[in-house]
Structure formats: C-alpha cells, structure tokens
Amino acid sequence: LTSLHRSAAAWGLLLQRLPGIVNFFQGPLRSLASSSRRLLATRPFTGAATTMAREASVDSSVANVRLWAVSDIHTDVQDNFQWIKSLSATDYRGDVLILAGDVSDSLERLEVTLRLLLERFSTVFFVPGNHELWVSEDENSIQKLNQILELCKRLGVV
Fold it and tell me: Does the pTM exceed 0.90?
C-alpha cells in the first residue's frame, strides 16, 4: 500500500469521514505490516508516476476480503481506460478497492471509470486527486469537488 503511505493525509481524511471503516479494516491493516504480500504483476499505466497495487492476506475475521489500493490510473489515456475495462468482472467481486486519486479531470470519464470499478469490486473508496479538481478558467474547483462528492454518493462510492 505504498500509495497510501505516500498519502497519509488522504488516508486520515478517509478514516475521519468513515468511522465505521476503522473497525472493518482494523485487523487487516494490522496484518498488512506482518503478513506476506506480493506485488501484482500488472503492466504499468501509461503516464502514471506512482501506481501500485498490492494483495495482502487478511485475518479470517474479515472472511478473506482482499484490500487493493491504486492511484494515478489516468483513464483519460485510452490504454489505461481499456486496461480497467479488461479487469475481470468476477475475480474481485468480494474485494475492496481504494482508488487514491488522479483518475480523470473529466466528470464524465470519472463516472464511467467508477461505474466499471463498482461492477468489479464489492466496495470502492475514492479520494479525489489533483487531476479530478482541475478546472477551466470559468469553473470553480470547490464546485467541482462538490459535484464529485455528489457523483460518488449517487453511485455508492465511499
């Protein structure tokens, strides 16, 4: 979960917004430090500065839920978008995904990407990155953030 270590502030914000998640992940997060982990062999995203996904075994109390974390997927790049579309629709259905920003500056592409990920993972957590908040001169980043939060609420993204 290197992406999360680099983004401790975002992780802290996520935990503040979602008090119930603390209890759900308390055991697995402790076990991440001591359990064996293996880096997934996936091709790097085009243009991604820091993208990392890890699989970790978790305590049996969480019924073998796998926790995945990824950032900088930049689905504005067609190759990256196709890679997301190519993810198995069944292999990750019981798993949780933390999407730590830099998906797209387009609300439409962000929505399509989130919908695709929701079809593949049981739960998707999303923390907007700087790319999501990019705006043109006639837009306001605070308004865009509110639109993103509303989109996540409507879709069931946490």
Answer: no
